[in-house]
Amino acid sequence: MLKRHLQYLALGILVSTNYGLASTLHVTNHNKKPVKVKIVAKEDSKAVTKMEIPAEQQSTFTVDTEHLNGKSVYSIKGDTNPFTPGGKCNDLNIEKDYKVTFKDDKAGTSCVAELIK
Known about the structure:
The chain is an alpha+beta fold. Helices cover 15% and strands 55% of the residues.
């Protein structure tokens, strides 16, 4: 009986630990247009999450291993226009939280990611 309870406890710890890996992103769009955001797992172009941040707005969301097909490193790209370059922040990790800012510049959109301590 006690052995069975310990097995369930160990399974619960494994499951909760696996789902506990998540990165919180605080995204700010400084553009006067909505920015289309695309999150892609490193080394797995099939693991893609897309969303849109309204013009001059902020949004907070999480990225976890489920979104990334089990991967832990990802990039975030944002653009306002398919004809101009989008800004991209690379090598973000789900074990860390970031403040991501998309800004309008002369060539398109730039991306700046700051680690939140």
